[in-house]
Specification:
6-stranded antiparallel barrel; 4-stranded antiparallel sheet; Elongation Factor Tu (Ef-tu), domain 3; elongated; about 300 residues; conserved putative lor/sdh protein from methanococcus maripaludis s2 fold; mainly beta
Length: about 300
């Protein structure tokens, strides 16, 4: 059935009206969104927490792992080839210098004597073992004269010095001890790129024994900075950068050499009134506008 001319006109007008209505609605939505963008942006503006520097003392340290040794580590070795026919000691026994700690067959040769007075730290042979000249039988030590033996990365070779103080933390008990660097071996291991350092342990009580072989963490104090301005180390972002807020805008702060301990980062005295971002620093960038709120933390205060 053919459509009449009037039907075609009516249909065309209907299309036009529908198009105009849809266009008006679309235009209205666009304009509404454009007018609402500033409000939406304002609602999404990042809120950060800030702190101001506080004056305190900071110890610049490097932290290394190590283990406890005795300053006296006297090996008892065989001076003949033969068989251990009698062993007179166990680990933990106290011995005096020249005590016979093992007998070797044939007996006409030589018994093994304690090289020093102390405690038997370890026994490396048992009765019936065959030994040769130089075979280790036992190690004698002094459990009240302990030290830490640590491997220090080569990059610190120019800044670790004899006489530097240290804080030693037992990895299991968490107890802390004072120490001092007493020996630095002048040799870098080519395999792991470390050099050995010995740190004496100073403050063992009379009734305390720190077992040889115990694992410890040691903070060697490189420099002591007294009455300097600092902020919590948590102000550093994931790239070790510091951000502050000035007039509502994020600013990247120049800090020079990064001097810090396990809790705080030192800043220049002229930054004493600067507001550093301590929470939200990984979600912002320099030049961004932010809102700030004071950071409340009893340790910082």
């Amino acid at each position: 059935m053919r459509k009449t001319k009037s039907q075609i006109i009516r249909k065309t007008i209907l299309y036009l009206v529908t198009f105009i209505i849809l266009g008006g609605v679309t235009y209205g939505i666009i304009m509404w969104n454009m007018n609402r963008q500033p409000d939406a942006f304002e609602r999404q503006e990042v809120i950060v927490s800030v702190v101001k520097p506080v004056e305190r003392n900071i110890n610049e340290v490097i932290t290394i792992s190590g283990y406890v040794e005795s300053n006296l580590m006297a090996p008892a070795v065989s001076f003949v080839n033969g068989r251990v026919v009698k062993l007179n000691i166990e680990a933990g026994d106290m011995v005096k210098k020249d005590d016979i700690i093992a007998s070797i067959s044939p007996a006409n040769y030589a018994d093994i004597k304690a090289p020093e007075s102390g405690i038997v730290l370890t026994v490396a042979a048992k009765e019936g073992d065959m030994v040769q000249v130089g075979t280790l039988v036992a190690v004698i030590g002094d459990p009240k004269d302990n030290c830490v033996n640590a491997d220090v990365p080569e990059k610190y070779s120019s800044i670790v010095k004899i006489g530097q103080k240290a804080v030693i933390t037992h990895k299991d008990t968490g107890k802390k001890y004072n120490g001092e660097v007493t020996r630095i071996e002048p040799y870098v291991n080519p395999k792991n790129k470390t050099f050995k350092v010995k740190i004496n342990i100073d403050n063992l009580s009379d009734d305390e024994v720190l077992m040889v072989g115990s694992s410890v963490s040691t903070d060697i104090i490189l420099n002591e900075h007294k009455n300097v301005f600092s902020i919590p180390i948590s102000c550093l972002n994931s790239s070790d950068l510091l951000y502050s807020v000035k007039n509502g805008v994020v600013v990247s702060e120049e800090i020079g050499d990064l001097i810090k301990d396990e809790k705080y980062v030192m800043v220049q005295s002229e930054k004493r009134n600067t507001e550093f971002i301590i929470r939200g620093q990984n979600r912002v960038f320099p030049g961004q506008r932010v809102k700030t709120q004071d950071y409340k933390d009893s340790q910082h205060e």
